[in-house]
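Tip: read the tokens left to right.
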């Protein structure tokens, strides 16, 4: 058997694995872990059984495939993002509130100062579509709190919990959902390490949240 067969099979396996992992919906950490293990296993086998050039060649092919997968994932994410103004944002929230279930709505202020809305699970509004309200004159934290009051009620304890996390520098992701239009909305706060409160220069002045966030 020619000595190039095993390196070729390993390279094809890694390229296909990148595509499968990218299209599987796995999270970033899971995807990185899976591909790191596959790369380590393939390169170790080649180093132990294949020619000396095989490890370098397959590693280069894997690097190219990784960069291609990253660019493809970035393009797919950008295609799902639509930028909206404050009025369009409120209209989208109203659509979500009146839509039949099952329904999931997610709202979060990103470190860039943009307010992100992810909603809608039916065919007309594909799940995973993101709407970004870019930083402007509206306080994004006030808009998130408005959604807590709108969906869960003005006295819901999630409002206090959200402000507590803000004071600690964490911009939590608000998720509200219901199984059908006959059931009440329920909510929770998701935490991610990269959900941080944006810098003062990236958010407008706010009489409610500036004291909470330490800006005079």
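Filled-in amino acids:
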């Amino acid at each position: 058997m020619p000595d190039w067969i095993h390196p070729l099979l390993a390279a094809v396996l890694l390229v296909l694995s990148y595509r499968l992992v990218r299209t599987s919906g796995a999270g970033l950490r899971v995807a990185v872990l899976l591909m790191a293990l596959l790369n380590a296993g393939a390169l170790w086998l080649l180093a132990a059984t294949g020619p000396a050039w095989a490890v370098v060649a397959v590693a280069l092919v894997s690097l190219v495939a990784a960069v291609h997968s990253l660019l493809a994932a970035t393009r797919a994410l950008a295609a799902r993002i639509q930028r909206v103004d404050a009025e369009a944002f409120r209209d989208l929230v109203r659509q979500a509130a009146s839509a039949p279930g099952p329904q999931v709505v997610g709202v979060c202020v990103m470190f860039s100062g943009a307010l992100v809305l992810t909603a809608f699970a039916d065919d007309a509004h594909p799940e995973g579509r993101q709407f970004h309200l870019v930083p402007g004159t509206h306080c994004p934290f006030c808009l998130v709190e408005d959604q807590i009051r709108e969906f869960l009620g003005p006295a819901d304890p999630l409002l206090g919990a959200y402000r507590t996390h803000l004071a600690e520098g964490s911009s939590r992701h608000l998720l509200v959902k219901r199984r059908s239009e006959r059931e009440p909305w329920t909510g929770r706060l998701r935490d991610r390490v990269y959900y941080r409160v944006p810098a003062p220069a990236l958010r407008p002045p706010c009489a409610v949240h500036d004291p909470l966030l330490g800006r005079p």
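The chain has two domains: 5-79, 82-213. Residues 23 and 32 are 13 Å apart (CA to CA).
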